[in-house]
Amino acid sequence: MNRTLIKNVKIINEGEIITGDILIEDQLIAEVGTIDNVPTNTQIIDGLGKYVMPGVIDDQVHFREPGLTHKANIGTESKAAVAGGITSFIEMPNTVPQATTQALLQDKFDIAANASYANYSFMFGGTNDNLEELLKTDPHKVAAIKLFLGSSTGNMLVDDEKVLEKIFSSTKMLIAVHCEDETTIRDNLASAKTMYGDNIPMDFHPKIRSEEACYISSSKAVALAQKTGARLHVFHLSTARETVLFRNDIPLEEKKITAEVCVHHLWFDDSFYKEKGTFIKWNPAIKTKEDKKGLWKALLTDKIDVIATDHAPHTLEEKSQIYTKAPSGGPLVQHGLLAMLEATHHGILSLEKLVEKMCHNPAILFQIEKRGYIRKGYYADLVLVDLESPQTITKEGLLYKCGWSPFEGTTFNSEITHTFVNGKLVYNHGKFDDDNRGMQLTFTRPS
């Protein structure tokens, strides 16, 4: 049996911070508290002055494999994720080919089993014509169904309202959605092209992919979920207006309609377009300071349930093109937790609330088995953090295959020092256990 004891550490878990020890035996947490009788042959890590939290569960990433591996792959991006304190990720289906059949979905699981440093699951992609295949999805092994109600790739835009209602009515799986109204976006883009051609100024992005486009789509999705009783999770809210669609008067376990916000929508606003340009071009767009303020308010009052990254890398060459040609998305897994820890330094977000939104709630929302908490018998997915170790993000320190970050030049006050995945110390002060591989996530749901 392999044992590790983390001693003298401040444990952030379940709404409180306590000083204590954590004993790991093989893959699991064996004991939490004051541990005096240390078994022989135990590796000891002194965490004095550090905090430990459950590993982050990132419920929305794009790791680009298969088919888009010039941008990223599961190996490189999961390695960056582990360095960023993310021990489990859920990856999206819009790869090449798209994960819209059970066989293609299994191909992604097979790749991750051989390549992923972190624990993993994937979403099955819905289309206008694959309902029969969608209904074969195993709720114990697959995170969710993903529907693009806007900003799709390939044939993944689900815009047939009869098909949408059929999907919502037919599956008991959680349905995760990207909500932007395509008609509104097309009209706004056409108007901008009339004025500027293809070289549209970047600050038009939130006008093209507007508040109205987001609200029309997200409100329709919520109404359809209410009508059908479907379990709905709305990805990456970007506007204050959308937050009124969600409730905070019942526990998360009882919610059938939930919401996520991403790090970039909490960190940036439209004043950054002048400096960052296409490097902060995301869909949905980063919007106004008032929108950012409204998102923070909704997060802190529990209308928004989860913080994620929507990590979606592209090459420097791709992102350096003019507005209409530069793709949307950027790399975030290595620095998403650091950015949110910065909010704790500024008194915006407590450490307990950060852990709730990035660790506990994804586990609750997706019904992930034995993860997201520091509890006896749970998998030992743990992150040690030094809150008083400033660092400036440089290109040389980036682990993303794309080789750039929107946070380059940013100084964070914290450092992630250790990351355990299933009881193994996979990341230790910049060094990796390159032999360790994560596990496929499982889910405690009825069939």
From TrEMBL:
CDD domains: DHOase_IIb. Pfam families: Amidohydro_1. GO terms for biological process: purine nucleobase catabolic process. One of its GO terms (cellular component) is cytoplasm. It is an enzyme of class 3 (hydrolase). Catalyzes the reversible cyclization of carbamoyl aspartate to dihydroorotate. Belongs to the metallo-dependent hydrolases superfamily. DHOase family. Class I DHOase subfamily. This is Dihydroorotase. The lineage of its organism: Bacteria, Pseudomonadati, Bacteroidota, Flavobacteriia, Flavobacteriales.
